[in-house]
């Protein structure tokens, strides 16, 4: 079993990476493979609304790394969407990935069916719930099961590493990782 994380931060090793790692540690303890794709330094173009992806199983535009990301999303058993809060929402890189992924999924049904999904957000002070909702909408619209924790999946911090000081936030991430591992194992058993 494998979980793919997409880190939508402009900083590869910032707070968003830290909260992904907290979730990943728990998954790895349960024998689940992990991989993280960082969008830092990459430009992901928005959806062009061409609708040419019908029957193709992926976006037809090849100028950026979206197609590789989407192939990995299709292969994964679980997807962890992770974004810093920018302007009380997800980052524009994460938005671009989700716009294109959602349209490809709409035009090619069942690509994400019965996968587990979780979203996490790093922020300085406000806007996490909107960002989490934006990411969860992708899961809920594409037949996935959304994993929860003991609080909303957010951690506070401004400078890289600050999130480590948010004890409740980091605990929430660890619980999320344990719950995601639990769900993945149940889904795997069911599929046998
Ligand atoms: C363009 C931009 C917009 C931001 N907007 C918000 C915001 O609306 N609310 C907030 O709490 N923090 C905001 N922040 C702060 C980041 O969410 C915070 O520093 C977070 O820890 C960044 O995660 P990272 O270390 O993974 O980059 C913003 C930061 C940037 C660069």
Tell me what the structure shows:
The chain has helices spanning 15-29, 66-75, 92-107, 128-140, 167-191; strands spanning 2-7, 33-38, 78-84, 116-123, 145-146, 154-156. The chain has one domain (2-191): Rossmann fold. It has 192 residues and is an alpha/beta fold. The longest helix has 25 residues, at 167-191. Strands 1, 2, 3, 4, 5 and 6 form a 6-stranded parallel sheet that branches. Bound molecules: flavin mononucleotide. Flavin mononucleotide (FMN) binds next to helix 1 and strand 4.
Question: Characteristics of this structure?
Answer:
192 residues; alpha/beta; Rossmann fold; 5 helices; 6 strands; binds flavin mononucleotide
Helicity, in percent?
Answer: 40-55%
Rounded Rg = 16 Å
Instruction: Say which CATH homologous superfamily is assigned.
Output: Flavodoxin domain
Beta-strand content: 15-25%
> Which shape, going by the Cα principal axes?
globular
CATH architecture: 3-Layer(aba) Sandwich
What's the overall average pLDDT, rounded?
A: 98
Q: How many domains comprise the coordinates?
A: 1
**CATH C-level:** Alpha Beta
- Give me the secondary-structure category: alpha/beta
Order of helices and strands: EHEHEHEHEEH
Bound molecules: flavin mononucleotide
The number of helical elements comes to 5
What CATH calls the topology is Rossmann fold
């Amino acid at each position: 079993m494998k979980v793919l994380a997409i880190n939508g931060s402009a900083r590869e090793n910032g707070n968003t990476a830290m909260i992904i790692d907290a979730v990943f540690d728990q998954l790895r303890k349960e024998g689940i493979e992990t991989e993280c794709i960082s969008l830092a330094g990459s430009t992901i173009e928005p959806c062009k609304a061409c609708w040419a992806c019908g029957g193709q199983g992926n976006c037809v535009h090849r100028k950026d790394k979206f197609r590789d990301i989407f192939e990995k999303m299709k292969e994964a058993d679980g997807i962890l969407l992770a974004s810093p809060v920018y302007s009380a929402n997800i980052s524009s890189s994460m938005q671009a990935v989700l716009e294109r992924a959602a349209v490809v999924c709409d035009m090619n049904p069942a690509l994400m069916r019965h996968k587990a999904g979780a979203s996490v957000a790093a922020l300085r002070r406000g806007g996490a719930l909107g960002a989490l909702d934006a990411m969860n909408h992708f899961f809920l619209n594409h037949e996935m099961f959304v994993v929860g924790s003991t609080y909303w999946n957010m951690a506070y911090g401004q400078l890289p590493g600050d999130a480590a000081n948010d004890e409740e936030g980091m605990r929430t991430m660890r619980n999320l990782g344990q719950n995601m591992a639990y769900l993945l194992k149940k889904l795997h058993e069911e599929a046998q």
